[in-house]
Amino acid sequence: MLKNKAVLVLASVLVMVLLSTGCGRDNAQKDDEQASQFQAVTEPKTVMGEKDIVQQAQESGHFKYFATMVAAGPEGTKKAHYSDTCIGCHSAVKMFDDPQAVLADFFPGGKHEGQVEGITCRVCHEFGGTEGIRLRKKGWAVCGDCHTAEKLVLGKAVHHPQNEMIRGIGVGEVPNKPSYKCFNMIDFTCYDCHVTNASRHDFLVPGVTTTHEGVTRTSAKIDYTKFIEVFEQEKCKGCHAIPEDGVDSIKKKQVYIGGKLEELKPVYEEWGKKISTMDKNDPRVKLFNEGITYYTYVEADASRGAHNYELAKDLLAKAEEKFGQLK
To answer: Using one digit for the tens of pLDDT, what is the confidence trace for 202-239?
Structure first.
């Protein structure tokens, strides 16, 4: 009975997100039909500090990022680096209502002008049936189908490679090294940490805070006294009998990987400027570009080794080797 009530409350709150965040304003009727079977709640439950699930979803980068992409304007006009390919994972309208939509359709005068909602509830959830509310996908695919580099190419920068990092996909001279999480932990996936106890819809693990310049993340900090909430979950206690030990292990790994990223960052930035003025046939250009792949793979994953410490360590060692040959 308690479980059924919990599902009903969560479903009702998520329905409110659908309506309040505008999961397709022109598609409100579709969302109303999906939501009609649920009993409304007058006050969303506060689940993270002073912010309830509705507030978390509205303020999350998942929801807000697409508006920033549209505001950047046509490619080249405002230093935009977005393309039509990007919106396939950033716009619910593109995903469900108009698969042929392109970025220009959302600019002023376009057929989807004003529909700048990003990732909303219907992207991840389905409504109806005996379960009431459920995830559209299972396992690592829930997040990994969008949080993926799709193709790792030596000599090219890497973007959002969380799926590859978890699975341990190597690149260049770094071989595959699957993470323990992906292949040894049954019934474990991204949302066990990022939606801890089904309560977090900012999708940051407990204790993590980030700062941004526009939409570019400039830093991320973690309060490990709050991060312990992850290891205190019932499904984690079987292996992590002492949650503090799990936290200490993660902290040591993140301190090392974070420190190595900071150590390599000045070289990455300095030579990034130099390379732009050098002959493309200069062997240092090739060295730097290969180093970029290894460095940005870890940087863009953004977990500082939490997703796959051994692979991250190997990638940064190879980046250091390549950067070290630049003279």
So the answer is: 888 888 877 766 656 666 788 888 888 888 888 888 88
The predicted structure's pLDDT at residue 156: 95
What residues contact residue 170 under an 8 Å CB cut-off, 6+ apart?
A: 176, 177, 311, 314
Is the domain of 62 the same as that of 181?
Answer: no
What does DSSP say about strands 208-213 and 125-128: parallel, antiparallel, or unpaired? unpaired
Query: What does the alpha-carbon distance between residue 231 and residue 55 come to, in Å, rounded to a whole number?
Result: 25
**Residue of 140, 154, 252, 125 whose CA lies nearest to 189:** 140
Which residue type, as a one-letter code, is found at position 173?
E
DSSP characters for 19-71?
HHTTSSGGGHHHHHHHHTTSPP-SSPPEEETTEEHHHHHHHSHHHHHHHHHHH
Q: Which two tokens stand for residue 186?
A: 């049954």
141 located within any domain: no
pLDDT of residue 43: 38
Domain boundary among 135, 165, 196: 135
The span from the first CA to the last CA of the chain, in angstroms, equals 68
